[in-house]
Structures are given as C-alpha cells and as structure tokens.
Amino acid sequence: MLDVRDVSFAYGSTPVLDGVSFGLVPGELCALFGPNGTGKSTLFKCILGHLARRGDVSIAGQDTARLGTSRLARLVAYVPQEHRPPFPYLVREMVLMGRTPHLGGVFGPSRQDEEAAEVAMERIGVADLADRSYTTLSGGQRQLVLLARALAQDTPLLLLDEPTASLDFGNQLLLWQTVRSLTAEGRTALICTHDPNHVVWFCDRALVLGREGRLIEDGPVRAVVRDDLVRTLYGPVSEVVGYGEDTVVRPLARASSSGVDPSSARASAGHALGAE
Known about the structure:
Blueprint lengths: L1 E10 L2 E11 L4 E5 L6 H9 L5 E6 L2 E2 L5 H5 L2 E4 L11 H6 L14 H14 L14 H15 L3 E5 L7 H16 L3 E5 L3 H7 L2 E5 L5 E6 H4 L2 H8 L3 E6 L2 E6 L3 H4 L3 H12 L3
Parallel strand pairs: 3-8, 3-9, 6-7, 7-8
Antiparallel strand pairs: 1-2, 1-4, 4-5, 9-10, 11-12
C-alpha cells in the first residue's frame, strides 16, 4: 500500500532524514515514534509531497511524484497535529471538505457526499457538533473533526500526526479504537505518536526514527518496544514490563528513590540519538 524507498531530506545544510525505507501492506496499523527532533513530521510531509525529498514514494503502486493533487487525495488522507482555518466554517462543512477529491463537477457535493460526511461524524462522535463553528471548538474537538474529515475522504491510506496530543484519555482510546477498526476493514494507517503504550496496545508494527533521521527499528511492536530501546530513546526514566498478557511502559517507582535526575536523563537520551 505504501512503499518508501531511500527517502532523505535536509533543511538547508542540516540533514533531517537519511535513507529511510519501509513498506506497509493493506490493513496494517503502524506506529512511527521516537524523541522530538528526529524527523517524524518531516517524513509525513515528504510522503505527501509537501517537501522536495530525495528517494521514491509510491501509494497503491503509484509513484506519488507522477500524481496530481486530486488523484493523490483519493489515495491518502492526512490528519495534522493542529489546524486553525482563517474562516469559521461549520463542523459539517469541515468534514464535507473531505469529499472534495470525489466531486464530479461544478454542482457541489451530492447527496452521497453529504451522507458520507454524516456517517463520518457519527462514527467519530462529533455529530452533535455539526452546526458549531470549527474555530470555537477546543483543540481536542478540532482533532476529532479532522479525523472525521479524513474518514469522509475515504482513502485506502491514512497518515495521522500525533492525533491524540490534544485529547482527553477517553477520546484518545476512542480514536485508537476507531483507527483500529478502520484497518480491520482494510485501510492502512501510519500514526506518529509519543506514547509507547499506545503503540503496544493498538499497533501491529512500529517504526523508530533515531539519530539524524535514520530508521533504527522496524518490526512487530512487541519486538521493537523493549526496555533497552525505550531507555535509549528517552533515558532511564521508565521500564517495559509484562502485565498479564499485555506489555506496559511505566515510570520508575520514584525519581527520588531511583536516583534518576530528569535533566540528566533527557541529556542522555539526546546524546544517544543526536536529537536536536
């Protein structure tokens, strides 16, 4: 479904991504994680063609460099970290925008497009906000509306960049469970996240970006989210433990009793990965 081959990118003389390669198959839910500054959001922008990268990207067997905007929008939907439109569109109008790639002419959205938007709002749980102005919503509510818009877009590939950052705990789980159900229906999803617990609870696979934007891990989540890796990424502040049939990443008992100095832990993680 998604094939990324030897993708590299630099901001001026500063390298951000270096030879990143991986492929995702239909129905796969894959996490992209790692510390701040390792190029996760930049990778998303390279996949979407927003940045002029080196290397090749194809979606559903089609080279994205040869696709127009409309065709690409039929293949991949993107949920950014944050979005603030300059005009106070209603929520239903925001979600209906996801149907833009499917519009057949100058007559505007069809009844089918409107129904797709309604179904998306119901599924994400924002139907009660349909007549609210998007600009008056909380950050978490806006994020759910953006997910509904992506769902209405009806693409085989979803890219979600830290979609739970503004959500309360219940809506975080709702979002992950919704994406999990979408991949069970055959869609493919790549999600950037900072929470390793979400990775092990919901994802099939994990990609880890480390030093200078190199892919340092790629595999099933239980093989990737290990105690040694988490300590390398974030410093000696947590541990990976088994809890029944589950895996949990938990903080060390107490910083004071374990002798962990948070500032030195951050410095250790940054040194190990070359994080900026």
